[in-house]
Amino acid sequence: MHPHDPTHGSHSLPVELYRPIARFVDEKNALCILCLASKTWYTEVMPSLYGSVSVSTGNYLDWCNTIIEKPFLGELVHSFSIIFLPKRKRDINYLVIRLALALRNLINLETLAISNGEGCEITTCQVLPAFVACSLDLRRFDCQIPWPYPSDIMTLFAFLERRPGITEFYCEPEHPDLYTPREVIVPVPLLANLTHLSCSVDLFTGLTVTPALESLQVDCGAGVEPQLLLSTLIRVQKTLRNLCLRRSTPSPFLFASEQILAGDVVRRIAEGVPMLHSLCVHDDSMRTYVRRSQLDDLVSSFAQFPQLEIISCSSYAHKSTVLIPPIDPFALSPIEVAGRFLGALPSVRTVTIPVWDRSQLCYARSGVSSSPVLGTTCEETCLGCRP
Question: Is the pTM higher than 0.85?
Answer without folding.
Answer: no
